[in-house]
Specification:
single chain, alpha+beta, two-stranded antiparallel ribbon, seven-stranded mixed β-sheet
């Protein structure tokens, strides 16, 4: 017999969990009648697939676990016959029986065969979706799903995305003894580096505690000296008077705080627009620190996106108005943070921090403010969002674009259609 089936075991889980089976007039492969009172709780951790099911097999009522496989022989293949954790299984549900299954005691386990017990149309639709090589697997069916279902699912996905981002923050808070200012400073620094320079920016922040910067918060030259010095930019021979002044300041502060700079070679300039050079971002970060050295505390107080934009509307020192790097003149161009850039910082750092802060302190007002911030930001424009727009999805804020990114990256990419509300709606 061929052991190749077009669907995976997760499809059987879906059928059982969503009660997509003909659950009347069931019989075990041994001939005993089966009555299903409760299919149990889906278990995504180790052990049987469904726990605490309620069944009647023959004349005996059972409360126990259900294990599912494509074939009964998978029981032996997975070694369950030697694992006492599976002795609690009261029913083995399979697509097809090809061998008996036994507990560690040698006792046989009743088996329910699902072949012929579900709608073939449903299986056909499922296979059509998971075998589709389009970027959005359910593209052909997407328009058939109600807007209400899509809206409710996107709301859940945004929260899911924020919880995922918040998990990384929570881990670092444990390391830093719940110092919110320090952890926010580190994450914001990484965000200033964007993807290409996130790592060296993060290394600078971790090598230069926020508390040290705070001590020099009223001296913009010393702030730049510390940041550029830790970034490795003040190790070279420099000719302009301003970078030489920074060098002098840094050498004194380096000795005072026993600082060790990172290797300058880690910074990347190639294929970056000059306005995004790491030197410019470091200067902007220094200006932001000068304006507010306890930035997270300020963000807890502000109430609108406009307030945040104003907080990040910083002016760099005069030197950077005519330079993109040390010792190389440029046209006198204002190099402030653009609104789109500020919005990225809000989306990727500020909103997740506020959301986690509100969650950990059971403060709904802070959580609502985080959601209000992201809803007030215009929709993002990237290749993922353009893929959704091709399906006539028209997001009107970053609230929705972030949810769509979560949907694409965590569900569509891995074809988790059976765990997706849109996939459920299509399979109905």
């Amino acid at each position: 017999m061929s052991r190749k089936l077009p669907f995976k075991e997760e499809f059987l889980h879906y059928l059982w969990r969503m009660k997509k089976l003909k659950l009347t007039d069931l019989h075990a492969t041994s001939g005993e009648a089966i009555n299903v009172y409760n299919t149990g709780t889906y278990n995504t951790d180790g052990g049987p697939d469904f726990t605490d099911a309620r069944l009647k097999i023959g004349e005996t009522k059972w409360a126990g676990n259900v294990e599912m496989h494509l074939y009964t022989s998978d029981w032996q293949l997975h070694g369950h016959q030697h694992n006492k954790a599976y002795d609690s299984v009261v029913l083995h549900v399979v697509y097809e029986e090809d061998a008996p299954a036994f507990r560690t005691t040698g006792e046989p386990i009743p088996c329910l065969e699902l072949k012929g017990l579900f709608d073939e149309k449903l299986a056909k639709t499922y296979l059509e979706i998971i075998n589709n090589e389009d970027i959005i697997p359910c593209a052909a069916h997407f328009s058939s799903v109600s807007q209400l279902t899509k809206t409710a699912w996107l709301e859940r996905l945004l929260v899911e995305r924020l919880e995922r981002k918040s998990a990384d923050i929570a881990l670092q808070l444990e390391v830093q003894n719940n110092d919110w200012e320090e952890v926010f400073y580190q994450f914001l620094a990484a965000n200033f580096g964007a993807k290409i320079n996130a790592s060296p920016f993060k290394q600078v922040a971790r090598s230069l505690p926020q508390k040290i910067l705070a001590k020099h918060g009223n001296n913009p030259t010393q702030l730049e000296a510390l940041l550029f010095g830790q970034g490795g930019f003040l190790q070279d021979d420099l000719s302009d008077s301003y970078p030489r002044e920074l060098q002098k300041e840094y050498r004194f502060l380096q000795k005072k705080y026993q600082l060790h700079p990172i290797d300058k070679s880690q910074w990347k300039f190639l294929r970056l627009r000059p306005a995004n050079f790491p030197t410019i971002r470091l200067a902007q970060f220094a200006a932001l620190t000068y304006r507010s050295n306890r930035l997270f505390s300020h963000l807890l107080d502000v109430q609108t996106i406009k307030n945040v934009e104003e907080l990040f509307d910083v002016q760099m020192s005069d030197y950077w108005q005519t330079h993109y790097t040390f010792d190389k003149d440029s046209k006198n161009i204002k190099k402030s943070l653009g609104k789109k850039t500020i919005h990225l910082y809000i989306i990727n750092t500020i909103v997740p921090f506020l959301f986690l802060y509100g969650k950990m302190r059971d403060d709904e007002a802070i959580k609502k403010k985080a959601l209000a911030f992201i809803e007030a930001i215009p929709p993002e424009n990237n290749h993922i969002i353009r893929d959704w727009q091709s399906l006539d999805v028209k997001p009107d804020s970053a609230y929705q674009t972030q949810a769509l990114i979560q949907l694409k990256n965590e569900y569509c990419k891995y074809k988790k259609c059976l765990q997706c509300a849109i996939g459920h709606a299509i399979l109905k």
